[in-house]
Design brief:
By secondary structure, this protein is an all-alpha fold. It has one helix and no strands.
Length: 96
């Protein structure tokens, strides 16, 4: 009848309570850690999405500029002959 001793039962109940408290605190710590990890992961995903959108916009603008430069006519070639004139040259009519 030793197993039904009141002191023995109280001692087993006390150990069981201590183990349950320990497991409960460990479980709460694990839940808090998991929630914190989820928040950090969500923040990281948001930052990655924002950077991807900004990179896409920059890439699109760069490609549009390259296409524009490739397809736009070069008007500076038409004015090259006028860059070298000199006021003292004979090509101009004299007002004297």
């Amino acid at each position: 009848m030793e197993q039904w001793n009141i002191e023995n039962l109280k001692d087993r109940a006390r150990r069981f309570t201590e183990e349950a408290k320990s497991l409960s605190s460990d479980f709460q710590y694990a839940l808090r850690t998991r929630d914190k990890h989820k928040e950090e992961k969500k923040t990281t995903e948001t930052i990655c999405i924002v950077l991807a959108v900004i990179s896409g916009i920059i890439l699109f603008c760069g490609l549009a500029y390259c296409v524009y430069r490739f397809l736009a006519p070069n008007h500076s070639d038409e004015y090259d002959e006028y860059d070298d004139y000199d006021e003292d040259s004979e090509d101009f009519s004299e007002e004297e």
